[in-house]
Amino acid sequence: MDDTVLVLSGRKYARVVRSSLKERVSLLQGSPPGLTVVMVGDDPASKVYVGAKEKACKKVGFNSSVVRMPAESSEADVLKVVEELNSDSDIHGILVQLPLPDHISVDRIASAVLPEKDVDGFHPVNVGKLWRGEDGLFPCTPSGIIGLLRHHHIVMTGKNALIVGRSNIVGKPMAALLLRENCTVTVAHSRTVDLAEQCRRADILVVAAGRAEMIKKNWVKPGAVVVDVGMNRNSSGKLVGDVDYHDVSQICSAITPVPGGVGPLTIAYLLENTFKARSRQQIARPN
Ligand code: NDP
What we know:
This protein has 287 residues and is α/β, with parallel strands linked by helices. The protein folds into two domains: 31-114, Rossmann fold (3-Layer(aba) Sandwich), CATH 3.40.50; 139-263, Rossmann fold (3-Layer(aba) Sandwich), CATH 3.40.50.720. Helix content is 40%, strand content 15%. It has ten helices and eleven strands. The chain has helices spanning 10-26, 44-60, 75-86, 106-112, 124-132, 140-151, 171-180, 195-200, 245-248, 263-284; strands at residues 6-7, 34-40, 63-69, 93-96, 160-164, 184-188, 204-207, 225-228, 232-233, 239-240, 254-255. The strands form three sheets. A six-stranded parallel beta sheet has the order 1-11-8-7-5-6. α1 (10-26) runs parallel beside α10 (263-284), α2 (44-60) crosses α10 (263-284) and α6 crosses α10. It starts with 5 loop residues before the first strand and ends with a helix. The chain binds NADPH dihydro-nicotinamide-adenine-dinucleotide phosphate (NDP). NADPH dihydro-nicotinamide-adenine-dinucleotide phosphate binds next to α10.
């Protein structure tokens, strides 16, 4: 690795976010921020994520709870639980853990969560606010990436940003957030022609394709800032990103590692969103 490359450690920045939240929680009057996760079925990876979210909540002094529902629950059952949580004033954030069983519509569930409790930022109202440049709750992973870049004083205004991936969870909200930071934004996807050439034009390259080490050194502009969202297992079972870290870190100016880069930001910004949701609800409905 080039000694001059800046390693953008999400693990370290997430610690900064959590300690700031802990302090802000200690100064609150009234009930602490409350997050409830709804988990349908027992997907093993979801169990791990939900456990990590509960632990993170406790560490910063939030109330957290999990509603566990059997995989056979109907969409109506899940909607009923969401309705109950919507009307509980001690619950400021609601997160429905994905994936949901196939017979349940992710869109219908996401739209049922009150926009002011939608800490995932998936509700159409929050998506609209994101693109309109209004205040709202926005998806955690891209929000965390903007936080990380700001924390390291990475200049975004006027830069060419390329995002590889156009999912509703990462790629599209990332594009909207970088646009809000005054980047000139391009979004690439599986039908993009000559992706390597597109990548070489980017001052800021965010990769969220889910393809192990697809971004090679000769795809990257010298001095670019590279953010690797991907989490993949390579042929030997090792956790790797979408970027060939070893080679690319020799040419770029800053890069997120995998693991320890973008990964820890998602939960940290889920906590940030829950804190923000509570503050906004307090303003709307003061005690
Ligand atoms: P999706 O599978 O929903 O989206 C992948 C996107 O990448 C699609 O838009 C797809 O294009 C595009 N894509 C796939 N292959 C290529 C290719 N060869 N060239 C160009 N574009 C391509 O994934 P997510 O957005 O949910 O996640 C992306 C990655 O980020 C995954 O590895 C996931 O595990 C990781 N992730 C990490 C998080 C974290 O906390 N660190 C959080 C969320 C995700 P098209 O639309 O044309 O199919």
